[in-house]
Amino acid sequence: MSPILQGMLQKGKLPNWMNRWVEKRPPEERVYFDKMLSMFGMGTKRMAFVKRESIYNQFYSDFVTPLNDQISTDGTVIHCFYATKMGEEYEARYRQHFVAPDVVRHDLQHEELLVCYPEQWVSEVENCCGIMTGE
Questions:
Q1: Which is nearest to 78 in space by CA: 88, 87, 70?
Q2: Burial state string for 94-105 with b = 16 or more CB within 10 A and e = fewer than 16
Q3: Main-chain phi, psi angles of 53, to 5 degrees
Q4: 13, 49, 104, 108 — which has fewest CB within 10 A?
Q5: How far, in Å, CA of 61 to CA of 56, rounded?
């Protein structure tokens, strides 16, 4: 994945095969994909500074970093924004690794709340943190 992602970030565009795949998505999915691609700098070269080894290290560390089960710290609540369209295994993973996590369910895809509904994402984070704004 590192060479593909690095090429995308350097050029600011998708490979042709990936662009064709995205173009075949239904309109409601296209909104999500377009916003995700924008977040990653597609259409610009603003992410060209990212090096291949950084991409590799990020993916590699995600795969090999062990995470204990039933993590709990007194006075701490773990809040998990769960995008149900990712699959039930993600919620099961949250419940495996954390004691009594606050799982906030959304009928969305991965990071869709953040990229498509940023105001709601902010509100959700504020709510989890007990922050009251606008008062």
A1: 70
A2: beeebeebeeee
A3: -65, -30
A4: 49
A5: 8
- Which pTM does this prediction carry? 0.79
Task: Mark out the alpha helices in the chain (DSSP H runs).
Answer: 2-11, 16-23, 27-39, 52-64, 88-97, 112-116, 118-129
Angle 6-7-12 (CA atoms, 0-180°, nearest 5)?
A: 100
CB atoms inside a 10 Å sphere around CB 70: 10
pLDDT per position as a tens digit, 92-115 = 999 999 999 999 999 999 999 999
Determine contact, residues 59/83, Cβ cutoff 8 Å: no
Q: Is the pLDDT of residue 135 over 70?
A: no
Question: What tokens does 74 get?
Answer: 């007194």
